[in-house]
Amino acid sequence: MDYGGGIWIRAAVAVAAGGAIAARAVRRKSVDSSAVFVGVPAMVAHTAAGYRFAGLLLVFFFTSSRVTRIGEARKRALDPEFKEGGQRNWKQVLSNSGIASILVVLIAFVTGGTDRCLDSKDSTLVTALIGGVIGHYACCNGDTWSSELGILSKAEPRIITTFKRVRKGTNGGVTIDGLLAAAAAGFSIGLAFVLIGFLTTQCASAVFWRQLLVIPLATAAGLCGSLIDSILGATVQYSGFCSVRKKVVGVDGPTVTRISGMNLLDNNGVNVVSIFLTTVLTAVACTYIF
Predict the structure, then answer these.
(1) Torsion, Cα of 172, 152, 24, 5 (10° steps)
(2) What are 58-83's pLDDT values in tens digits?
(3) In which residue ranges of the chain is pLDDT below 50?
(4) So where does this one cross the membrane (predicted)?
(5) What is the pLDDT of residue 86?
(6) Alpha carbon distance 184, 66 (integer Å)
(7) Do the Cβ atoms of 75 and 118 come closer than 8 Å?
């Protein structure tokens, strides 16, 4: 293993770039100051492991921040947790990057920071770890795009467990537009991984072109992650309608009528579980596909 200049140069680049991106994100209210203390170390870990992983993190961050800003006026009226600019705190950043950060640290340790192709014949462990990172960000991006764009759909959402119509903002409510958005979000993650890999990764010709299969795999992972998130949201996350605020809320109270779900997990908890499950499923799939 080579733990020489390459990995440290990437880490230095990540500190500089991560600091600049964090400062811009705080100014634009994409994150609050507490999120910086989680986001910058995550960026350093991802970049040290390989530019492809930093690319996935950045694609998720920038695209999710962009879609969050679409239709803010309508979302303000529907979402009880709406924040201007979609501002995220350290808990939200950690829930959307924590598992991947652990995986990229393991990848850096095993590979010495050398980019490797998905190839189980070369290393099943590395293939599974890389696949897990792909699944992680496909799920994160899929859930964000689905939630942020699905709530703007003209169609009335249906709760995924019974397919009955529910109010917009209900956890577990899905629309065709939201599901298509989740698939598109996963596609963007797969495409980024492949394009950056073409520039940074060296491997045998047959293995190299097989990496294109990451695109449909990530697309499926984005959709699958969104569906898992919806199932959890409909069953273990509370949704109720507040007669005073005239919107769906996630906390029970005297003026709230229950719509669905048990109050076992909040939104961050649901995200972590759905991300973990999608990460494992994608990691296993990669060991069979590649």
Answers:
(1) 50
(2) 999 889 888 888 876 676 666 655 55
(3) 1-4, 85
(4) 7-26, 38-62, 93-112, 179-200, 212-236, 270-289
(5) 54
(6) 14
(7) no
Q: Tell me how far CA of residue 129 lies from CA of 20, 58, 119, 253, in angstroms.
A: 29, 19, 11, 43
Tens of pLDDT, residue by residue over 156-174, are 899 999 999 998 889 999 9
pTM: 0.88
Which residues, in sequence order, are bridge partners of residue 242? 247, 256
pLDDT (0 to 100) of residue 73: 65
Q: Are 81 and 267 in contact (CB under 8 A)?
A: yes
Residue 113 Cα to chain centre, angstroms: 23
| Both tokens assigned to 44 | 């350093």
Give the pLDDT of residue 8: 67
Distance (Å, whole) CA 135 – CA 169: 25
Question: CA 46, CA 14: separation in Å to the nearest integer?
Answer: 8
For residue 224, the model assigns a pLDDT of 96
According to the model, what pLDDT value does residue 71 have?
75
Residue type, 249: V
Q: Tell me, what amino acid is at 32?
A: D
